[in-house]
Amino acid sequence: MRPFAALRAARSAGSRSGAHPRARFCPRSGARSHARSGTRSDARSPAAPGARRSRRSRTAGTAVAIAVVLVPLSGVSGGASRTAAPAHTAVEPVAPPEFTTLRSVDPTIRQEMRYATPHTFLGVPVTGYREPVCLLTRSAAAALHRAQARLLRQGYSLKVYDCYRPQRAVDHFVRWAKDPADQRMKREFYPRVGKERLFEDGYIAERSGHSRGSTVDVTLVRLPARPARPYVPGERLVPCYAGREERFPDNSLDMGTGFDCFDTLAHTDDPRVRGARRANRDRLRAALEAQGFVNLPEEWWHFTYRPESFPDRYFDFPVARRSVAGD
Ligand SMILES: C[C@@H](N)C(=O)N[C@H](C)C(=O)O
Ligand SMILES: [Zn+2]
């Protein structure tokens, strides 16, 4: 059986058996297959009664995937023996059935999945983004689809920069923030803020709504969309709060800053943002609020759909099409 066939078989078996995902743990690797629970930085609201029912009934489907891989014992810390073992069972988490690809729900929504590229505030692709695909809970994807249907009639399209974000990606952000020597993307993404303040100031969260699956980073594009050029690693960086003609080109509407601009000018209601830029921010927020999304005040691009299907869970399956079933 190919590894991912094994993953699917394992998931389906887990689903049938009703085994609780928290019980699945690989004693050798320490790998966990379940979502984490914990504190979080953004406000939350209780899940809808339907969502609670759904969560209970589908818990067993939460992703236990088992693949057989070879792991040399010489690299395993804390091993009791250095004698070679023939095989090792590793665990790779997959998504519960409430998750889907955004493309399968609405292929017209543009996707520029930044964290799968080097054009990030870290300057490298982020851990866990194996493919540039948007994964979301079905309720959040359906709400985006409703917003998109209305926007298309007005000559606009949504464009997502980030969707579900695995905990391992958030952990990558945390490791990066602890390294003061790495300032390679400061000039573009956080020119006026020390990287040690980015969590405290609300621009990045150690427990992110994105890991719960109902949060998106999103903007608006005027149709027909202009072509966008790719980022070239090593290119000259321009502050994200510079004028639209100077900063990194993006085919989206001018929101007053670029995406992931960690600066007070990116605060959604910053009074310095006026005229067309204010109208663009307000258009984006109104379109999404009308479908149940709530904006994060520090970032004009960050929205969480409420009620969340998983208000207390922090998933860690990789961003890849094969993490979700059947799409
Ligand atoms: C990092 C940025 N795109 C973002 O999503 N920030 C919020 C606060 C988060 O990390 O959840
Ligand atoms: Zn976000």
Automatic annotation (TrEMBL):
Question: Which cofactor does the UniProt annotation name?
Answer: Zn(2+)
The top EC class, named as a word, is hydrolase
Q: Which InterPro entries match?
A: A_A_dipeptidase, Zn_M74/Hedgehog-like
Q: Where is the active site?
A: E299 (proton donor/acceptor)
Q: Which reaction is this enzyme known to catalyze? A: D-alanyl-D-alanine + H2O = 2 D-alanine
Compositional bias ranges of the Basic residues kind = 19-37
Renumbered to this chain, region (Disordered) spans: 1-59
Please note every region of biased composition (Low complexity).
1-18
Query: Has the keyword Metal-binding been applied to this entry?
Result: yes
Q: Does the keyword Ubl conjugation apply?
A: no
| EC number(s) on file | 3.4.13.22
Which keywords accompany this UniProt record?
Cell wall biogenesis/degradation, Dipeptidase, Hydrolase, Metal-binding, Metalloprotease, Protease, Zinc
Binding-site residues for Zn(2+), renumbered to this chain: H210, D217, H302
Protein name (record) = D-alanyl-D-alanine dipeptidase
Q: Which organism is it from?
A: Streptomyces pyxinae
Upper lineage is:
Bacteria, Bacillati, Actinomycetota, Actinomycetes, Kitasatosporales
